[in-house]
Amino acid sequence: MIITDDHMHLYNHLRLKALEQFKETGGTHVFLVSLLCHHYDVRPNSGKDFAEVFDRHLSLVEKANRIVKAYAVLSVHPAEITVIGGRVGFERAAEIMKEALDLAGKYVEEGKAVAIKSGRPHYPVNRQVWKLSNEVLMHAFEVAKDVGCVVQLHTERYSKEGMVEIAEMADSVGLKRERVVKHFSPPRVREFEEIGIFPSVLAGNDNVLKAAEQGDRFMVETDYIDDKKRPGAVLGPKTVPKKIKELLENGYDEDFVYKICAENVAKVYGVEL
Length: 273
Prior knowledge:
This protein is 48% helix and 15% strand. It is an alpha/beta fold. The protein has an eight-stranded parallel beta sheet with strand order 1-2-3-4-5-6-7-8.
């Protein structure tokens, strides 16, 4: 049985041991997402400086593939605008982020990664930073359209209005809405289906069961951060396999699991599982 975690990080705590735990619990496939530059002790002055981040992440993904099937997602995290901007100014930070997205797109074209990550800050920012963040996100959509990949979204607190706005941004550059994946999604499967963006439901509490009650158009994730300072945050690496097994215990069959963990993943990302 295929069990996929759609969004996980490996950083400075369990690292590959997290994937061993994932596998021991039944996990088979994972999308590994790179972190912010400062997690790699990189202080970028241009988009090219993200190459060190991406290369180190890809090296980790290569090792991860000895344990489970792992796919690389290259992130230009929306919080970079304030992290980098505090050093070089917000406008220059936005330009660096766009350059980094161009670089990430090249890695996707070369077959080294399957998706990019972008979005908008999840914390309050001023009007200038919000405007620049939207420009960066729009650029991410343009890159994704050009290279034919998914954009994983990291955004502000979920609202239907916000998702519709983002979906219309994707429309404006010709990127299909289902190629936009909302990471850290609530279990509002019907609402996401109406909007067109694809939800990656956070597997905490009874979210997976609530999502399943609304249909099978979703994926699941832990957003495991692997930080020594926050062990187990956001959710531990065993969570997705455990929640998938809860589905089976609650009357959902293996065909349903195959739909959310394999068929949806293959269709959205354009990968073979």
